[in-house]
Amino acid sequence: MLEGLLGGLFNGISIGAVLLISALGLAIVFGLMGVINLAHGELMMLGAYTTFVVQNGFKLLGEPWFELYIFFALIAAFLVAGAVGLLLERGVIRHLYGRPLETLLATWGVSLILQQFVRSVNWVLVIGIALFCLLFFGAMVILSRRPDIERIRNWIVAVMLPLSLGIAIATGSFLGQIFKLAVTKPWFGAQNVDVTAPSWLRGGLPIGNFQLPYARLFIIALTILCVIAIYLFLQRSTWGLRIRAVTQNRSMSSCLGIPTQKVDALTFALGSGLAGVAGCAISLLGSVGPNTGQNYIVDTFMVVVVGGVGKLVGTIVAALAIGTVNYMIGSGVLALAFSSVQPLLDFFTFFATSSMAKVMVFALIIAFLQVRPGGIFPQKGRSVDA
User: Fold this and answer.
1) Which residue in 47, 126, 167, 342 is deepest, having the highest Cβ count within 10 Å?
2) How many CB atoms lie under 10 A from the CB of residue 130?
3) What is the CATH architecture assignment of 2-117+193-378?
């Protein structure tokens, strides 16, 4: 019984570590800009798919290089998710600041678009998107040099948008007719894909009669490194100081010359990159699919709310607590631990499924927020009164 309890505790901590990596970025973004980004889970999904692509690329290089692919995948996942997050902030969220309902709906729409993009992405789609961006944004950059650009901007957009879109669609259809299945076959499809861990991440560390999986130990170590890196960045770097200043008082920071728009973009890109790293960690725990991010987004938001908005320490405590409690209830470990007490055994057996465990954890969080609505570490300072 003790060994099962310790094994469940370890597995719960490893799941909490994944939630922590994801929630770190969300806590920074939510705390700084007050943006509820429902596409955060899809950024995790993009990080997981990036890991899958990097893995397949390193398989072509042979066995010695394949053992190191996970380190390159972490960097690639951070860059890809960070770039998508930067585009999301620049193209959508920047125009919706101060309108939380519109931001909520817009990011939900983006999440659906990203899910469908992964299901149907192929060479035709990629070439079409690249051609559209080249024509439309290239024309906007060239024509922005005109002295009367502000007067004719709407006319330029009205002409170039349908023209660029039509050329991109026509080019994609032409390529599809010529090359047939070669360019129209989806890269991933709707089915899940599997990521093979390097040999040194397979197996486990034997302790007594149970093992600590190397993959989960790696995830815990990765989480610790991410927490240390984020702490040093926020506390010791110039841009970290600017982020903390904007979090405390945006208007005063702007008056002091801090470029708040650049801070917003950097913060969103950083938070999105951390979501990509979390997606890379998720790929080591199971198969990856278009709906992977949806399995973690609710828990990630609960971590941010319970820990306290923008609080690093609160995010750490809440992530580990929610991940551990969720796993131990859903896996039946607590039911086994209280097997000698019949009422408790019946209670925890009823909730010993993944879906019912989430219901139980959600109820506990609601009860906790009734006592401490600001979370474990509530926000303090002038931003609370604003």
Assistant:
1) 47
2) 12
3) Orthogonal Bundle (1.10)
Sign of CA dihedral 135, 137, 141, 144: positive
- Domain regions of the chain by residue span: 2-117+193-378, 122-185
pTM above 0.70, yes or no: yes
CA torsion, ordered 351, 352, 353, 355, to nearest 10 deg = 30
User: What sign for the dihedral angle of Cα 260, 239, 266, 232?
Assistant: negative
Q: Mean pLDDT per segment of 10 residues, for the chain of length 386 residues?
A: 69 82 80 78 91 89 83 93 89 80 87 88 83 84 77 80 87 77 72 84 77 84 89 87 80 84 87 90 85 83 79 82 82 69 74 77 85 75 46
For 206, phi then psi, to 5°, come to: -75, 130
pLDDT at position 182 is: 59
**Cα(80)–Cα(103) distance, rounded to whole angstroms?**
22
